[in-house]
Amino acid sequence: MTDIFPELEADADAIARFTKTQVARTEAAFCDAQFDADVARVTDIIEDPDNLGGLIRRGTWIYNFHRSATHQRGLWRRLPETTKPAPDADWQPVFDLDAFCADTGEDWHWGGAETLYSNPDRVLIILSFEGSDRDRLLEWDCNAAAPVPDGFDIAPARCGAAWLDADTILLATADLPGAATRSGWQGRVIRLQRGMALADAPVVFEVDHDDLLATAYTFPMQGGGRGIAFGRIRNIGDMVTTLHLNDQDYVLDAPAHTMCSHNDTHFAYVAADEGSDPAGTLVLARIDGSDKRILFEPSARRAVDADTILFTRDHLFWVEQDKLEPTLMRLDLTDPSATATPLPLPVEAQSIWIMPFDAEPTGAGPLQILPSGFLSVSQVWTFAPDDAVPDYTLLTSGTETFDSTGMEVRLHMATSDDGTEIPYHIVLPKDHAEKQGKLPVLQYGYGGFGVALSPGYQRVNGPLWLERGGAFVQAYIRGGAEFGKGWHLAAKGKNRTRAFQDFAAVATDLVTRGYTTPDRIACHGGSNGGLLCGVMLTRYPDRFGAIWASVGVLDMLRFHLFPAGAGWIDEYGDPDDPDARQWLLDYSPLHNVAKHSEQPYPPALIDTNESDDRVDPSHSRRFAAALQAAGQPGWFHSRSGGHGGGGQSKGIAREEALGFAFLRHSLPD
């Protein structure tokens, strides 16, 4: 019972036959003329020359990674910082990913670059092999637009690196005997000098085999020099941080299930439910653990997302959410008596992100803020962190990809099975009143690992869904962290079913409010969100008209047997534990497929990526096969790429367009 369709996990010939047959069947059903038009439209969006997002400064240059019709994989390029970023500016090529793939005969995906702090023209380019979690690290001279002779070139592996000096890196690696954790991630940090073999490099930090991974990085110190940080990540969202400053080690005094942010004088974290700090509080302390104080206390609908915490040399920034409305906060670290103050935003926003403008921040350089909203095109503004009132400068603004005239965003509350109110945003198309009661709705959610969803511009959903009269729903269910750590922990482990109940309650609420009917509601999610959609199909089929599950975790009894899956035991429970096994079996989508004669399901698209080494593609293959064996309307598709997809712009466009083609064919008119 536990090993369903095992040949679709390990038999290469069976996998190839199944994939070829199923992909052809799915594409024959959905890849029509409208699909081709949608692929062209999304490709144009991805390759839009006016799209200048992802700007970052290195030295005296501003860098940007951009896809175009001539560079579908992407071109890393730069401008002098004195030149305003514009499509027709004289961009200087630095790294041509398309040419590199052609030269090497391999499929590489862009992963960014690690900058040498003492020479911003020298980087380690990060290239994912086939979109997987295995990265190649290649030392690159940005001035010469060429690899450094005899430079670092780390073979693809689960790894991460930080510059220690111009000839030495700290390499966290899984590519040595005994270096991988049980999840397959890097568990050992070595000090690697130029020209040295990995096996000869001294080990400077190591985590336990049962931990998730090890990490290392360096950071600037106010008096000059660099500090070193080592991270022992025990589980997702749970890291013990050790700082090496002035020949002294400091283990940051934070409770379990937290991730610390810091500079060289202070650290901060959002507390979980363990320890002396109340859950959800934002706590600040000096590096030695002294002067600890609470900066923020949560309430039912007020929270701080730990991912928004940012230190500069003299200030601490974070974003508070009050009923999903963001406020940017700042605290002066140089004044022990200072209180946090809210900062005005450059424009109205439903969500905001703040980050350094410099790839290798000094702690005193400019910051960039990215305000966003479902119907608000993406923008990037810069400002000086020390200004009493920020003097914002608009760096770039994205292109509108759809006409949002007449569209509307509303916030509603649904009531879950245990009485908890579950918020969700609904983005309504123009003329929605005319379709009241029969709106096609695409409902999206995640609900796990403390991941907080936030409103973002509907760059693809807009033209392929909203513009055609569909409504989009984003549900903030438990398991995420939209309302603090408690919101995550409420649906963790044996309480995971609360996340499912929450999501189903949102679908019911849409009908109760008169927006639509169950057969016109589709849901979509990826990874843990794919699990969510799998459960909606097998447990709540009467509440949806179509299910679209991407790269989903769908076998809850064997997920831990794939290397990366061992890192999810803390979140889901251990299938080898009898108690946990029972609650996992109770909702595991693969093990709860009913025959059509017993319970008919709505049509489902189960899609995955061939090189996904985080959520093994066999989850999706076996679930799709189980649906079809039970006589249920299940469709399967597989494409190149890793867990996040990616690759050439047209390939990315096909991924997006296929899902909407499935919805268009599956939901009733």
DSSP summary, beta strand count:
38
Which range does the strand content fall in?
25-35%
Q: Look at the structure and give the mean pLDDT.
A: 95
Based on CA inertia axes, which overall geometry fits?
A: globular
- The percent range for helix content is 10-25%
What is the distance, rounded to the nearest whole angstrom, between the alpha carbons of the first and last residues? 39 Å
The stretches of 5 or more residues where confidence is low (pLDDT under 50) are: none
What oligomeric state do these chains adopt? single chain
> Mind telling me the C-alpha Rg?
25 Å
**Strands of the biggest beta sheet: in what spatial order?**
31-32-34-33-35-36-37-38
Task: Explain what this protein looks like in three dimensions.
This protein is an alpha+beta fold and 669 residues long. Helix content is 19%, strand content 32%. It has 12 helices and 38 strands. An 8-stranded mixed β-sheet has the order 31-32-34-33-35-36-37-38, sandwiched between helices. Strands 5, 6, 7, 8 and 9 form a 5-stranded antiparallel β-sheet that branches. Strand 20 and strand 21 form a beta hairpin. Helix 3 (33-46) packs across helix 12 (649-666). The chain is globular. The protein starts with 6 loop residues before the first helix and ends with a helix. The model has no long low-confidence stretch (mean pLDDT 95).
